[in-house]
Amino acid sequence: MMISVIIPVLNEHERILDTMQSLDSVAGSVPYEVIVVDGDPVGDTIASLPDTGIIKLTAPKGRARQMNAGAARASGDILLFLHADTLLPPRALSKIVGALSESRFVGGAFDLGFQNSRLIFRLTGKCASLKHRLTRIPYGDQAIFLRRSCFAEIGGYPDIPLMEDVEMMKRIKRQGGLIVILPEAVATSSRKWEKDGVAYTILRNWLLQTLYLFGVPAERLIKYYYKQ
């Protein structure tokens, strides 16, 4: 199976090359293509990428819109949605192919880990991973992957400014799809957590997800996502 790696970006020119190099190291023998979708109409981030071997697109700003644009261009059997500041674990692509070789799974994600080795981040990753295993609702920074056919069937990511990953997982659940959480952990950046404060970020994320699951629209919650 071929994997289409879709990376939504916005002002990530300082990180995107590290992400690309990391992909090369975890791909192994699995065939894959890379689609980088820039939310900046000028294409600041994709301008820093090589001219060959990468599909470079621009799309209206918004992670859901950018990922949908990348998926529309993809040719792989599996869609892997990767944040620009998240690094995949070793042999990640073969792990994905192995997981989806079981027909009962329509997609999945990895456990959550951080590039910061401080104890608070190790504990946060462990607790978050346990929660996601219980709920089967992973977040986007866990590198969500789906069969392309499943993604098309559920209509892709909903066009909302926040909780697009949660809403997509709800749709999959309603249709009876099963999600697998792989035990290997991604290494995502802790920059936003450190900027906003770890305790604040944990409480905010849990509260926003709870409110969303109880019916509060994402358009109302978005203003609370960014700390002033």
State the helical fraction. 40-55%
How many DSSP E strands? 9
Overall number of domains: 1
User: Which superfamily, in CATH terms, is the homologous superfamily?
Assistant: Spore Coat Polysaccharide Biosynthesis Protein SpsA, Chain A
Order of helices and strands: EHEEHEEHEHEHHEEHHH
Q: What fold name stands as the CATH topology?
A: Spore Coat Polysaccharide Biosynthesis Protein SpsA, Chain A
How far the N terminus sits from the C terminus, by CA atoms, comes to 44 Å
Average pLDDT taken over every residue: 93
CATH C-level name: Alpha Beta
From the alpha carbons, calculate the radius of gyration and give it in angstroms. 17 Å
Shape: globular
Q: How are strands sequenced across the largest beta sheet?
A: 3-2-1-4-7-6-8
Secondary-structure arrangement, i.e. CATH architecture = Alpha-Beta Complex
Number of helices: 9
Largest sheet: 7 strands, mixed
Which structural category fits the helices and strands?
A: alpha/beta
Strand proportion, as a percent range, falls in 15-25%
Low-confidence stretches: none
Q: Which keywords apply here?
A:
globular; seven-stranded mixed beta sheet; single chain; 9 helices; 228 residues; alpha/beta; Spore Coat Polysaccharide Biosynthesis Protein SpsA, Chain A
Report on the structure:
The structure is a single chain. The relative contact order is 0.15. Helix 8 runs antiparallel to helix 9 (218-225). The longest helix has 17 residues, at 119-135. This protein has a single domain, classed as Spore Coat Polysaccharide Biosynthesis Protein SpsA, Chain A, CATH 3.90.550.10. Strands 3-2-1-4-7-6-8 form a seven-stranded mixed beta sheet, with helices on both faces. A two-stranded antiparallel ribbon has the order 5-9. The chain is built from nine helices and nine strands. Helices cover 42% and strands 20% of the residues. The mean pLDDT is 93.
